[in-house]
Design a protein that fits this description.
4-stranded antiparallel β-sheet; 12 strands; Pyridoxamine 5'-phosphate oxidase family protein (chains A, B); Split_barrel_FMN-bd (chains A, B); Pnp Oxidase, Chain A; homodimer; globular; Pyridox_Oxase-rel (chains A, B)
């Protein structure tokens, strides 16, 4: 089995039974996500910002404007990237055992700037397709000027941990006698009907790769 | 208008037109969330972990086991708490203008331990009700032992920023002529039918405050 590394940063000290140790679990969590939360240090204090990302093999890519301070600060320091899926609200008989079902991946690494044009396009394709599968080939490719305005960073997936909780509440045995409902309220991300740009030219239908994502 | 503070940490340097400046926008984002992403510094590198939270007036509460290193590290350092709602995937005619619609709140502050019993119970109530409205009164209250095992931290909402993007894509004018669909794919969090604990005693129905959250 292709295992995840275990370092001081990725070893779980709390509830190690909730950790995942195979690399496919990491890929599954990353590939199912839409945004990550990027942690950096700015002037000595932590900053957490939501942003898009993409994965290719064992590299995670993020991008931003070349003018964004958070990304500019990136290449010279370790960052943390966390992707979380909330799967359910765990409703126990006791306040104490309330919890959530979730899957999360936490990645630590020092980002490297991606500057070569082909590598940059490959990374941007991964980031675009993560958010909107099928869009890279359906839309106008980045111009030279747009490419120059976009900073791309690569983070190796060499130091990562996976943590999850699934299943029913873990109430203490004596509480099972209480007259209190217990279980899980499932949570998932849903996609509504696409809203066309008011400036959309008439006669352009919603493409299949977008329409098929609608869940409600 | 009750405005948000503007400090070096909360002033937006990128796209300031996406910032929110009134306090009610901050409250709305926090009150609509289920989990936050907590950023701390551990051994010099950033760490971002998902966790529950609650809000009462101008204080944000988080909690954890007294044995959790991330929370133990909290009281002596500034932390960052970010709550993000993903509202849509912005599908532009150009790769470059792909984006997301979102609302996010970023809070900076130095957590204070909440140790007095009544204050701790009040904070835990806020955290529980944030995740599961109606559950505090419907379930068994924390015992003295459970309270002792739970660390509660209070973070003042005095340094916070709100950022959001809403609306259609912002394609460059010449791209409007392209034969490419553009618009927004709405994203929202949905709740499925409650799954009873396999150990649930027979004859206990799903309470109304849980059943009414189901969206699909």
């Amino acid at each position: 089995m292709n295992t995840l590394s275990s370092t001081d940063r990725t070893r779980l000290t709390r509830l190690p039974e909730r950790s995942g140790t195979d690399r496919s679990a990491l890929y599954d969590i990353l590939d199912a996500g839409l945004i990550c939360h990027l942690g950096i240090i700015v002037n000595g204090s932590p900053r957490v910002l939501p942003t898009g990302y993409g994965r290719l093999d064992d590299t995670l890519y993020i991008h931003g404007s070349t003018g964004a301070s958070s990304l500019m600060a990136g290449p010279s320091q370790d960052v943390c990237v966390t992707v979380t899926h909330l799967d359910g609200i765990v409703l126990a008989r006791s306040v104490f055992h309330h919890s959530v079902n979730y899957r999360s991946a936490v990645i630590y690494g020092r980002p490297q700037s991606v500057t070569e044009t082909d590598a940059k396009l490959t990374a941007l394709r991964a980031i675009t397709e993560q958010l909107a599968p099928g869009q890279w080939d359906a839309t106008r490719a980045p111009s030279r000027k747009e490419l120059a305005a976009t900073a791309v960073l690569a983070i190796p997936l060499s130091e990562a941990s996976v943590k999850l909780r699934q299943g029913p509440p873990s109430d203490d045995e004596p509480d099972h006698a209480l007259d209190v409902w217990a279980g899980v309220l499932p949570v998932h991300q849903a996609f509504g009907p696409p809203r066309p740009d008011p400036l959309l030219r008439p006669g352009i239908p919603v493409p299949g790769h977008i329409a098929q994502r609608v869940t409600s």
